[in-house]
Write a structure and sequence with these properties.
The structure is a homodimer of 225-residue chains. Chain A is of the alpha+beta class. Helices cover 24% and strands 26% of the residues of chain A. In chain A, strands 1, 2, 3, 4, 5, 6 and 7 form a seven-stranded mixed beta sheet that branches. In chain A, strands 8-9 form a two-stranded antiparallel ribbon. Chain A starts with a strand and ends in a 17-residue tail after the last strand. The structure holds a DNA duplex (27 and 27 nucleotides).
DNA sequence: ACAAAAGTGTTTTCCATACACCCATGT
DNA sequence: ACATGGGTGTATGGAAAACACTTTTGT
């Protein structure tokens, strides 16, 4: 009855020049030596699941909680998903701004941000977990303000639109997006500042608002065509 | 590292005369003797999480998989959520048609369908799990055809509308609901049959269609007013 | 002056609502 | 005939898509 190990694995997503990227680590030891895997680790004996996820996030990125977004994704517990024994993993999804900070000085020496598309054959059942994390992120942009988690503390409407376009992989009309984003109650809070030294007219800066859901939602273009 | 027990708990929802109900069991043994709790049990050493949930569902209701709907809800693992030791539970959400079959002959002798509203002080952290299950169900009716899981194999549009009204707790316009439900592609498949012996004009019978998501969604009345 | 990007206005189209109305059955 | 619930048609208001246009900066 008590023979289970419980782990936490993280699908950490951010947006970089290459598009939507996930943080992956290259495994050194068996099982799956040399393969890319999601970062993660075992839950400690007196640690809550959420606390273990926050700890892993900090170990991998140096981020203090409060930046970005962290939520539980799902649990995976096939009896033979880990050849070492019976390991149930609780996966978490993290949405993060592009970190100028390096990923170093930790046990994540072999970590790298890699585009989520065109990735296959991760260790364990991590392909499936990564795919479900990406799909969760895509869906959640529609009806929550989580796209702001990919941005820094202050951002422009155009930056926010770029987040949507990258995650959804589809272009959006800048004018209609602007109107919709700025008119949806609680989505954005103007800081009063503007950008400087960029080409074109300066853009107003915003922080994320206090809404937890977007109503009405920002629906992505019809997936069925 | 291997000192965890893993359990599966079920939020089983159905619609009865009293409204939206969950199956609860009254605990006989400590901890929490005499308190209502979600049905559940430990995952077996060589059993997948989903398989454990299917097994529990069958033990409690006698249902074979395929009826209704079963999905993972989330995992809960606070170090002291169970006084007996370190137990991580994986909660599942089941949506079921109203079962004429009794809930008997099993270890669920003290099980009962109880309205989800006005319930507090379940054992363990089950209040929270139940609340999250109900909210998941409410949200999923919007953009998936899962309302059909509450109905029998064949049902009328009015029965389906009653499901929405019960789960959302709000009245819907019968005419507009009818048009929307029958025109949303893949939601419903007409069987050709009709009801008989009821008051009023006979209603056409439908089965659930093959769509997995509803596009566009059936949005519930604005929660913000 | 021109290019570039931000932001606004306007038109059209679509969809949700509201509700009048007809249909098919039981009593 | 009438009540009851199933199902269709239609007017209207509001939001989304499409796009012309103005604003404000850098070069």
């Amino acid at each position: 009855m008590d023979g289970f190990a419980v782990a936490v694995d993280l699908v950490m997503l951010t947006i970089r020049d290459e598009g939507l990227c996930a943080l992956l680590v290259r495994r050194g030891l068996p099982p799956y030596p040399g393969r890319w895997a999601l970062p993660g680790g075992f839950v400690r004996p007196d640690e809550d699941l959420d606390a273990a996820a926050v700890r892993e996030l900090r170990e991998e990125t140096g981020m203090d909680a409060g930046t970005g977004h962290l939520e539980q994704l799902g649990s995976y517990g096939h009896p033979r998903r880990d050849p070492r024994g019976r390991v149930v993993t609780v996966a978490y999804l993290a949405l993060l701004p592009d970190l100028p900070a390096p990923v170093a000085g930790t046990d994540a020496a072999h970590a790298a941000w890699r585009p989520v598309d065109g990735h296959r054959r991760l260790a364990f059942d991590h392909d499936r977990i990564l795919a479900e994390g990406v799909e969760r992120a895509r869906a959640k942009l529609e009806y929550t303000p989580l796209a702001t988690a990919f941005c820094g503390p202050e951002f422009t409407v155009a930056e926010l639109r770029a987040v949507y376009e990258t995650v959804w992989g589809a272009p959006l009309d800048p004018r209609n997006f602007h109107r919709k984003a700025t008119s949806t109650d609680g989505f954005l809070a103007a800081t009063g500042g503007t950008t400087e030294g960029e080409r074109g007219r300066p853009a107003r800066l915003y922080r994320r608002g206090d809404a937890t859901v977007l109503y009405p939602p920002l629906l992505r273009p019809d997936p069925a065509g």
